[in-house]
Amino acid sequence: MVTSAAHRAAATHLQSAYAMSERRACRVLGVHRTSVRYQATRPDDGVLQDRLKVLAQERRRSGYRRLHVMLRREGHAVNKKRVERIYREEKLTVRRRGGRKRAMDTRRPLEIPLVANQRWSLDFVSDQMTDGRRFRTDCDRQLHP
Known about the structure:
Blueprint: H1 4-17, H2 22-29, H3 33-37, H4 46-58, H5 64-74, H6 80-89, E1 119-128, E2 134-143
Antiparallel strand pairs: 1-2
Helix pairs in contact: 1-2, 5-6
């Protein structure tokens, strides 16, 4: 599907390159003249854009829906779709929470056994009870020579 902007560009190209009239260029492209003549009149979003950025910085965990509610409470007569468009244009996103911290590496080097069959180990045993509760235990053991 070709957009209206692409139709406008093609009609302008035909008019300038081949000295065609607007009527003929539109007929060749199979487009209505009104869609070629149309000029978008989008209101200036400068104030709304600035306020949305400030709110997004203050409330990092709020998405565009929550920010829309906050803007409405402040008195801005704004549509949710408009807030979403500005939110995307400014590349604002909900900041992800950090995950669980995991040990990156061994905390201390493993001890080298001094004699044969000498090694410390930690064994975990886990099971589930009949009512669905899980439990986990650990037992230390040392193998002696």
